[in-house]
Amino acid sequence: MIAMTDDANCMQLLHIARIAHKYQFKSIETWASAALSRYYTRIGAFENLSTVTNDSDDANIPSLTQITELAGLCEIRELLEAAVDKWKRLVSEGKDVALAIGLAERLNIRPLLGLACHSMMLNGRAHWDSEPLLTRNQKVRLYAGYYSLSKLWESMPSQTPPLVHSGRCTSQQRCTRSWAQLWRLILEKGTGILPLQTGDVLGKLMLAESCMKAIVEGEFSSAGVVADDVPCCKENALAATSARVGEVRESLADHFTDDF
């Protein structure tokens, strides 16, 4: 009964789940997994959790790494998603990025691996060399990722996201041509607002998404007549841009490989 409350001994539950998994005590593993999921899917459950070791005097609190590894081992989907969301927040803040890369590689968590490698890549070689947790192979993959993403950005203006036309669109062919021109204009001009690195494809696409949102809301007029040529499909063009951002974010890990 205590295990299903906020007073649960999570370290004990973690050990129980790990041992039960090892010896295939499925009912016990399921029970311990459910208790841990209930505890760590509460709002704020991960807020003060250490990534590696527990800094407090309470030995009943496992680290974020231990929780993530157990969730991956026992395939506790809800708990793994909550833990990965916490790792993504840390990576976005530039914290424990090398640790996240190693963990994501071991557990094959590709969305986290891509974001962590992308974040580390943008720090530059001097930072890689000073990071003790990065292996030589990981550094090679960072070089490969920078090269691959730089090439992707070069081709991106010609890869217009598919546009689903509005029912009010009176000339889909003209609209499609105008959308291709607008996409190229935003990528070549709009993303120059901020000095982003060549390999920061995700950052540039997110900036392009912001530009497209400003066009839809009437706050950005530098696109001129090109934007006016897609009056009925602006919202759909924004949706297409957002979809392209999501595609690149989800496929980031594919660029950080050993193949140049």
Protein architecture, described:
The chain is mainly alpha-helical and 260 residues long. It has 2 domains: 2-153, no CATH class; 155-254, no CATH class. Helix content is 61%, strand content 0%. It has helices spanning 10-22, 26-40, 64-73, 77-92, 97-107, 110-123, 125-130, 136-155, 172-188, 201-216, 225-228, 234-250. Helix 1 (10-22) runs antiparallel to helix 2 and helix 4 (77-92) runs parallel beside helix 6. The longest helix has 20 residues, at 136-155. It is globular and about 65 Å long. The protein starts with 9 loop residues before the first helix and ends in a 10-residue tail after the last helix.
Which segments are poorly predicted (pLDDT under 50) over 5 or more consecutive residues?
Answer: none
Largest sheet report: none
Gap between N and C termini: 55 Å
Mean pLDDT: 89
Strand percentage: under 5%
Structural class estimated from helices and strands: mainly alpha
Please estimate the helix content. Answer: 55-70%
Number of domains: 2
The tally of helices reads 12
What is the strand tally?
Answer: 0
Helix and strand pattern: HHHHHHHHHHHH
**Estimated radius of gyration:** 23 Å
Overall spatial form: globular
